[in-house]
């Protein structure tokens, strides 16, 4: 009972973190302006005129279509999809056998054997047709398109004897199979981005703020992202106190008993 209480209390703490993050992101979206790139260029030139060349910083939102970097499109690893960003994960499902109290126990587990997130920058073309660079900074976008989701059973092959394929009776890895998942952002995909615009490398780029602030890249509209954060915050605001209270009650009851 004490252990369950502690687990609930820890879950409440994790939920509180995500509740605050959802609230802070919502406030950041409400407070940020959605600006066209041309207007950002005007603000950058004003910054240059007062001697702050390369020091322009502006937290805001931009919307538009994803556009490849000058070197061209990326090609995703698993599906070979042309894109501006991709991420893949490969997981192994396996069985682990143990013996306790004279009995054979089998439990199924999953481990990540390979994963990669593209780091290359790309661009966004706003509604006036003007480009701005995007530095993804390893951040996973909100709701990218999933192009691969499959499971392949593991089929180890044994030796060939007299032209016959024999099963591999010596394979003791316990591998059941592999899960493959991949997500992409294709060129032309409509994006909403909240972040900090800077001119550190010359051209304007939007990315993760250097200090305080939030960085969101989403295939959803701003309103859809806002609604999602409101819903998340609303449910967590109910669940966190309930989990914390239940955890305290279980710990106290466990100690008293």
UniProtKB/TrEMBL annotation:
The keyword Transferase applies. It is found in: Membrane. It is a multi-pass membrane protein. Residues 95-248 form the E3 Ubiquitin ligase MUL1-like domain. GO terms for biological process: protein ubiquitination. Its EC number is 2.3.2.27. GO terms for cellular component: membrane. It is an enzyme of class 2 (transferase). GO terms for molecular function: ligase activity; ubiquitin protein ligase activity; zinc ion binding. The chain crosses the membrane at residues 235-256. Pfam families: GIDE. Keywords: Ligase, Membrane, Metal-binding, Transferase, Transmembrane, Transmembrane helix, Ubl conjugation pathway, Zinc, Zinc-finger. InterPro entries: MUL1-like. The keyword Ligase applies. It catalyses: S-ubiquitinyl-[E2 ubiquitin-conjugating enzyme]-L-cysteine + [acceptor protein]-L-lysine = [E2 ubiquitin-conjugating enzyme]-L-cysteine + N(6)-ubiquitinyl-[acceptor protein]-L-lysine. This is RING-type E3 ubiquitin transferase. It comes from Saccharopolyspora shandongensis.
């Amino acid at each position: 009972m004490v252990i369950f209480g502690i687990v609930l209390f820890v879950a409440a703490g994790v939920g509180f973190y995500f509740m605050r993050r959802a609230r802070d992101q919502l406030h950041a979206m409400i407070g940020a302006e959605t600006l066209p790139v041309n207007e950002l260029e005007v603000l950058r030139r004003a910054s240059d005129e007062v001697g702050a060349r390369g020091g322009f910083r502006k937290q805001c939102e931009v919307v538009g279509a994803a556009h490849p970097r000058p070197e061209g499109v990326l090609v995703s690893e698993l599906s070979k999809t042309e894109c501006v960003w991709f991420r893949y994960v490969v997981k192994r499902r396996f069985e682990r056998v143990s013996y306790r109290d004279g009995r054979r126990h089998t439990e199924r587990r999953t481990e990540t054997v390979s994963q990669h997130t593209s780091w290359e920058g790309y661009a966004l073309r706003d509604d006036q047709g003007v480009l701005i660079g995007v530095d993804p900074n390893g951040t996973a976008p909100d709701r990218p398109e999933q192009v691969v989701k499959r499971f392949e059973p593991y089929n180890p092959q044994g030796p060939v004897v007299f032209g016959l394929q024999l099963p591999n009776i010596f394979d003791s890895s316990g591998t059941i199979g592999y899960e493959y998942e991949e997500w992409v952002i294709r060129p032309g995909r409509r994006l909403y981005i909240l972040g900090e615009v800077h001119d550190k490398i010359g051209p304007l780029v939007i990315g993760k703020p250097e200090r305080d602030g939030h960085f969101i890249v989403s295939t959803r509209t701003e309103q859809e992202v806002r609604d999602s954060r409101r819903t998340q915050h609303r449910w967590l605001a109910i669940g966190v106190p309930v989990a914390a209270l239940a955890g305290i009650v279980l710990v106290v009851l466990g100690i008293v008993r």
